[in-house]
Specification:
The protein is of the alpha/beta class. The chain has four helices and ten strands; from the N terminus they run βββααβαββββαββ. It has helices at about 40-45, 45-60, 75-85, 140-150, and strands spanning about 10, 25, 35-40, 65-70, 90-95, 105-110, 115-120, 130-135, 155-165, 180-185.
């Protein structure tokens, strides 16, 4: 197995913390041949956590965000902090059967089959500006599903923000035409 190459940052580091140094690479997880990018060391470091949230909030500033839409489960962690920093609300996209109120849903493709995300039908009001967040952009299926959910409820997607982007998997093609931001790109 070859050593992973250094990630490219989507913005110049200047005096900023190197967040990529806080990401742990775990070979062969969840199955052989996969190099899993673990954000937990970054979340455990208070300086790195603050830096990540600050950069994501900086990206959303000026977009007049009304709601941050985060996906289960790691998208909840920084998504709620982003909403707080932007003075916006937070909405949760969850797996089927996890939300207690009336929901809308969007399906997305997996390697073998499909999955589904649900959102409370009153989570986004028509005309609200929505910033979508998740920890990882890989193939783009869940990102596309979140865009569909926001738009199904009449929201306007003003950006899609990730901690990590795996560029080789071409996830941006699923959300082409939207403003996409990633803190770290591998």
């Amino acid at each position: 197995m070859t050593e992973p190459k250094e990630p490219a940052m989507t913005e110049p580091l200047s005096e900023r913390l190197d967040l990529a140094s806080k990401i742990r690479a775990i070979p062969d997880f969840p199955k052989e041949g996969i190099l899993f990018r673990d954000i937990m060391p970054m979340l455990q470091d208070p300086v790195a956590l603050r830096e990540a949230v600050d950069r994501l909030v900086e990206y959303g500033t000026g977009k007049h965000v009304d709601v941050v839409l985060g996906a289960e489960a790691r998208g909840f962690i920084l998504g709620a902090a982003m909403a707080y920093g932007l003075g916006a609300g937070f909405a949760c996209a969850r797996k089927p059967g996890k939300l207690p109120w009336n929901t809308v849903h969007a399906e997305y493709a997996l390697e073998y089959g499909t999955d589904r995300l649900e959102l409370h039908e009153d989570a986004i009001k028509p005309g609200q500006n929505v910033l979508i967040h998740d920890d990882l952009l890989a193939t783009g299926g869940t990102a596309r599903a979140k865009v569909e959910l926001a738009e199904k409820l009449g929201g306007k997607v003003v950006g899609v923000a990730f901690i990590i982007e795996l560029a080789a998997l071409n996830g941006r093609s699923q959300i082409e035409g939207y403003d996409v931001f990633s803190l770290i790109t591998y």
